[in-house]
Specification:
Elements: E1 18-24, E2 33-39, H1 57-70, E3 73-79, H2 81-87, H3 89-102, E4 110-114, E5 130-133, H4 136-139, H5 141-164, H6 170-173, H7 179-188, H8 199-207
Parallel strand pairs: 1-4, 4-5
Antiparallel strand pairs: 1-2, 2-3
Helix pairs in contact: 1-5, 2-3
Length: 211
């Protein structure tokens, strides 16, 4: 896994420990879904935090460096292509979020999670206190920070996967269903990193003649 998987943090505690949680990669046809959890340090503010989708790759990379340096704690969680196909993309996204939170080197007093749903944390005897925030990646700095880390990490991972599967253009489309990706998918067929439960991939598999 890429270096962005590593969770780096000092250990802190207290009621001000709020973790923002977000995921990226629900829409692509290929690759894992990636989530991040970030506890910011109010003593070390980071200028420019906002929705990662509103930034250039360079802006995201620069801010990701500041987040890793200044956050009290951060961690990355993944859900694989196989888990996406087995669970569905929503449940896999929640699983990736749960994994990110559980990897934090500090237990937050509150989770602020982008979207309508929160993970269940079934394996914990006492659950986390969590609140969903629709559009939180635009309004909550800790969620914005999580969005940035998750996006930078997933983009790096897809660039690495592109080296193994160069036909699909993942270095530029990051697995999303662009016209070029769909054309390559039809020409070369899906690979092991494609999500077989997603419509364009499933339709191609259904069209294949039986062995």
């Amino acid at each position: 896994m890429p270096e962005c998987v590593t969770a780096l943090a000092g250990i802190h505690s207290g009621q001000d420990m709020i973790a923002g949680v977000d995921e990226v990669g629900r829409g692509p046809l290929a690759g894992p879904v990636v989530a991040a959890a970030v506890i910011l340090d109010p003593r070390l503010p980071i200028a420019g935090l906002r929705d990662s989708k509103e930034m250039s790759p360079r802006q995201r990379q620069d801010l990701a460096c500041w987040i890793r340096r200044r956050a009290r704690a951060f961690a990355i969680g993944f859900a694989s292509v196989q888990e996406i196909d087995a669970l569905n993309i929503l449940q896999a996204s929640l699983l990736a979020m749960e994994r990110a939170v559980l990897k934090l080197k500090a237990r937050p007093a509150l989770l602020r999670i982008d979207g309508r749903h929160v993970p269940r944390f079934d394996d914990l005897s006492s659950g986390y206190r969590a609140e969903p925030i629709i559009g939180g990646d635009r309004t909550d700095p800790s969620i914005s920070a999580a969005s940035i880390l998750a996006k930078v990490c997933r983009d790096r991972l897809l660039i690495r996967l592109h080296r193994r599967y160069p036909h699909y253009g993942w270095d530029s489309n990051k697995g999303y269903p662009t016209a070029l990706h769909l054309q390559a998918l039809e020409r070369y067929g899906p690979c092991e990193q494609h999500r077989r439960s997603f419509g364009p991939v499933r339709r191609l598999l259904d069209m294949r003649p039986p062995p």
